[in-house]
Amino acid sequence: MAEKKEHKLVNAETGEALKQGEKPAKVERPEMKEAAPVGNATGLRIGAICLWVVAILFEVLALLVVLGKLNLKFMPTMWQLIIFIVLDLVCVVIGSQLWKKANHIKPASEKNKVKFWLWNNLGLIVTIVAFVPLVILILTNKNMDKKTKVIATVVAVIALLIGGASSIDYNPVSQEQQEAAMEAITDTVYWAPFGKVYHTHEDCQALNQSDALTYGTVEQAIAANRTRLCSFCAHRDEITGVVTDDADISDYVEPGAGE
């Protein structure tokens, strides 16, 4: 059997690392849930909406520049457009990250399919609204010089692609999935600095490549964008009804294990 790796364990709530060899205490859900809140979803949503509003304002300023209604005399038109587009992108991206974080803290229910889709794609919708009208106006403007039009179009399209890619939630979670995980897993879970998976065992072979692990509740794991349970851990604990990764169990189980 392969030697189990010793990890540096970091508390998800406090950010403090355990001493070498020290193990986190296994706490039952009531106490753990009270001691480890995962964040304020409402505050994050308000922050996201405010940033998105500011993003639209920057888009409006860029539109005014294209239409010739706004002209900062000390700066060429091209640079005015680039600056407003970049500021628009920054607000869109940060707002989308806050919104996705809120969705993992307090997910929408899958019972309402329309709301669930909108809730998890709102960042992408805002990105389209924040850039597509601008791209169309630049392309159809006949008074703008060719060089400015080409460069502004390229920058706006790149911003649209970056904003869209960063706004998509590639690992959406539903209220039902979160509740199923909370019901099935009451002990400490662990997750690596990268990836989308959490584990119920610190000595899981899938974690042998990670030097440091964060530990906490399953709610904290989902809030940290670890939305799926490790397939090996699920098999080891005989956990069912919880969303797992699609890894092949045979990749983790050593030959002869369980015989």
Structure description:
The protein has 259 residues and is mostly helical. It folds into two domains: 8-26 and 187-251, no CATH class; 41-167, no CATH class. It is built from eight helices and five strands; from the N terminus they run E-H-H-H-H-H-H-E-E-E-H-E-H. The chain has helices at residues 29-35, 41-67, 77-105, 113-140, 146-167, 175-184, 218-223, 231-237; strands at 8-11, 189-191, 197-198, 212-216, 228-229. The longest helix has 29 residues, at 77-105. The two termini are 13 Å apart. Residues 29-36 and 248-259 have low confidence and may be disordered.
Comma- or semicolon-separated keywords:
259 residues, mainly alpha, three-stranded mixed sheet, 8 helices, 53% helix, elongated
Short synopsis of the structure:
By secondary structure, the protein is mainly α. The protein has helices at 29-35, 41-67, 77-105, 113-140, 146-167, 175-184, 218-223, 231-237; strands at residues 8-11, 189-191, 197-198, 212-216, 228-229.
Note the topology.
Blueprint: E1 8-11, H1 29-35, H2 41-67, H3 77-105, H4 113-140, H5 146-167, H6 175-184, E2 189-191, E3 197-198, E4 212-216, H7 218-223, E5 228-229, H8 231-237
Parallel strand pairs: 1-4, 3-5
Antiparallel strand pairs: 2-4
Strand content: 5-15%
If helices are DSSP runs of H or I spanning 4 or more residues, what is the number of helices?
8
Q: Which class do the helix and strand fractions yield? A: mainly alpha
- The best one-word shape is elongated
Segments where pLDDT lies below 50 for 5+ residues?
29-36, 248-259
- Rg over CA atoms, rounded to whole Å, is 23 Å
User: Roughly how many Å apart are the termini?
Assistant: 13 Å
Number of distinct beta strands? 5
Q: For the report, how would you describe the main beta sheet?
A: 3 strands, mixed
Q: In total, how many domains does the architecture comprise? A: 2
